[in-house]
Design brief:
- 44% of the residues lie in helices and 18% in strands.
- The chain has helices at residues 30-46, 62-71, 93-112, 126-131, 140-157, and strands at 20-25, 50-55, 79-87, 116-123.
- The protein has five helices and four strands.
- It has one domain: 3-Layer(aba) Sandwich (Rossmann fold), CATH 3.40.50.
- The protein has 161 residues and is of the alpha/beta class.
Amino acid sequence: MSTQLEVSIPVPKVEGASPHVLIVRAPYYTQIVDGLRDGAIALLTAAGASYEVLDVAGALELAATVRFAALGSRHHFDGYVTLGCVVKGETDHYEHVCREAMSGLTQVTLTHGLALGNGLLTVATENQAIARSGADGHNKGAEAAAACLRQISAARWLGAM
């Protein structure tokens, strides 16, 4: 697991205890999702956050897994980062998966008041996904981790966490 990725986006400062974050991955496109993971880990590490990584079967399982983690008592997480990739194919399956996966993540976040950074790529081509998951500074995994930390910071400031 490489975290030698250069973080080119600002690393959010989170007041209080170091955040503990769950990264939930749907690694169907392994190379792409590994790149997203590396970006997220690099940013979390730069922010002084701890993390754990959990793999699920696919994009549709991301929201349910975040919900399981939020409701479970085995581990405590301050926030969540979801990572995956859905590439448009020849059928309308892409539209259904993208819509339901994104809707599920939004629903679980709002219902349970969670800090979530969404790094689920929904792209027309695999090349587009590769461009968004590389080590060149445009890594959407790092951006999702930054969004998660900003949400943790906002929730703490507002007294919701």
